[in-house]
Amino acid sequence: MRLKLLGSACFGSFFSLVRFHLFKMATTAASSLQMATARPCMSSSRRAFVSSAAMLNGNFKLASWTKLSSACHIASAQPFHRSFTSSSLKMDKFVTKAMAGASENKPASGLPIDLKGKRAFIAGVADDNGYGWAIAKSLAAAGAEILVGTWVPALNIFESSLRRGKFDESRVLPDGSLMEITKIYPLDAVFDNPEDVPEDIKTNKRYAGSSKWTVQEAAESVKSDFGSIDILVHSLANGPEVVKPLLETSRKGYLAALSASSYSYVSLLKHFLPIINPGGSSISLTYIASERIIPGYGGGMSSAKAALESDTRVLAFEAGRRKGIRVNAISAGPLRSRAAKAIGFIDMMIDYSSANAPLQKELSAEEVGNTAAFLASPLASAITGGVIYVDNGLNAMGVGVDSPIFEKLDIPKAQH
Ligand code: NAD
């Protein structure tokens, strides 16, 4: 079983590698005409409009077809504001554009998730391993413009890795283009405004060189750069005593877990709500330890996730009544992210899920990303205040079926 899982994971990365190389080869073949039509300075909504207008030879009545066309064909080409535009990245944009021209004049079949013209701010992206990155990719694949908030101490390494092309392979979107991050904002979500920041953080060398990284200042910066957003994602957590059982957790450690993992969301939504457009939505990431005992997920992190889920309901009511904004949480299954590896037992949790969940497969971050794209889209317009499980169904189990106690029960195993 384990071999099978490993095999499919390897095939997944093999195919994305092939796709990446095909895409890289294609960049060298972009024609000068396609280059002339690329307009990187336009807003994403205007770009989409202009490209559809050009495609339809000025027949604006048919423009609604573009609404139906698969979001994967949309060029989300914008330069990184922190000048991440290497010459190869510039070439990538032209090919993306070329692909859009080739297929946009066909109506898509099915029910596409279309986030063209929407802008997302995703808090908690500092590498390409976590749920935040996967959500950014799915939102970008659906046509949204991507802004991210990165924890200040992780900012330099994230930016330089991005600049050096370390993430290029995992930036590849389903249509072969590369995800563009329009701007990266420094963020420390445990501080609401500059008055909250203690002296030792102000003078900490890991914070030197960055400014305006409290939640209030990040929201103000996004407002002055872009005016508004449509999607807010909270994909961050921290519990300094996570490896300690609750009975051994200090008050300081417990409150720190709640501050970084729960109140950070209340604060983000509070400060971003004024600039979230009507019809917008907000999503956070939670874990089943909020409602079931998961030994090893300590330090008050289980309490923090319970608070996050309760707050999701109350915030859904308040943000819904004030501005019609939807608020949901995704309860995700185990993923080998940087944060999860720090807890120390993530591989056991992945194995446990494979052995016990209704779906005996490893969970991919993309499955969570795609759920976030659905929740952010008009297709989910009546879903708010919910905790949506994306965990291969593990949450539904009442017992661990791999227990030796069930040895004599004929429990079916995955047949595929
Ligand atoms: P991750 O390491 O990719 O994401 C956590 C992010 O939080 C990091 O980028 C980190 O820099 C950031 N961060 C920490 N403290 C911060 C602060 N004070 N201000 C701003 N950013 C800060 O790991 P992940 O596992 O993808 O975590 C994302 C979310 O998913 C978390 O809420 C986590 O609890 C949740 N989740 C993870 C799993 C899992 O198995 N990995 C399962 C369920 C839920």
Summed up, what is this model?
Pathway: Lipid metabolism; fatty acid biosynthesis. This protein is α/β, with parallel strands linked by helices and 416 residues long.
Salient structural properties:
alpha/beta, Rossmann fold, binds nicotinamide-adenine-dinucleotide, 416 residues
What features would you describe in this structure?
- It catalyses: a 2,3-saturated acyl-[ACP] + NAD(+) = a (2E)-enoyl-[ACP] + NADH + H(+).
- This is Enoyl-[acyl-carrier-protein] reductase [NADH], chloroplastic.
- Its EC number is 1.3.1.9.
- One of its GO terms (molecular function) is enoyl-[acyl-carrier-protein] reductase (NADH) activity.
- There is one protein chain.
- With 416 residues, the protein is α/β, with parallel strands linked by helices.
- It has a domain of 275 residues: NAD(P)-binding Rossmann-like Domain (Rossmann fold).
- It is 43% helix and 11% strand.
- It has a 7-stranded parallel sheet, with helices on both faces.
- Helix 10 links the parallel strand 4 and strand 5.
- Helix 1 packs across helix 5, helix 9 packs parallel to helix 10 and helix 10 runs parallel beside helix 11.
- The relative contact order is 0.11.
- The N terminus is likely disordered.
- The structure holds nicotinamide-adenine-dinucleotide.
- Nicotinamide-adenine-dinucleotide binds next to helix 6, strand 5 and helix 12.
Which range best describes the helical content: under 10%, 10-25%, 25-40%, 40-55%, 55-70% or over 70%?
A: 40-55%
Instruction: Look at the structure and give the CATH class of the domain at 119-393.
Output: Alpha Beta
The outline comes out as: globular
Strand content: 5-15%
Task: Compute the CA-based radius of gyration.
Answer: 22 Å
CATH architecture heading of the domain at 119-393: 3-Layer(aba) Sandwich
Structural class: alpha/beta
* Tally of DSSP β-strands: 7
Cross-sheet strand order for the largest sheet:
3-2-1-4-5-6-7
State the distance separating the first and last CA atoms. 10 Å
Q: Considering the protein shown, what is the CATH homologous superfamily of the domain at 119-393? A: NAD(P)-binding Rossmann-like Domain
Q: What summary fits the major beta sheet?
A: 7 strands, parallel
Question: What ligands does this structure carry?
Answer: nicotinamide-adenine-dinucleotide
Uncertain runs:
1-105
Note the run of SSEs as H and E.
Answer: HHHHHEHEHEHHEHEHEHHHE
Tally of individual helices: 14
GO cellular component, one term: chloroplast
Catalytic activity: a 2,3-saturated acyl-[ACP] + NAD(+) = a (2E)-enoyl-[ACP] + NADH + H(+)
Family: Belongs to the short-chain dehydrogenases/reductases (SDR) family. FabI subfamily.
GO molecular function: enoyl-[acyl-carrier-protein] reductase (NADH) activity
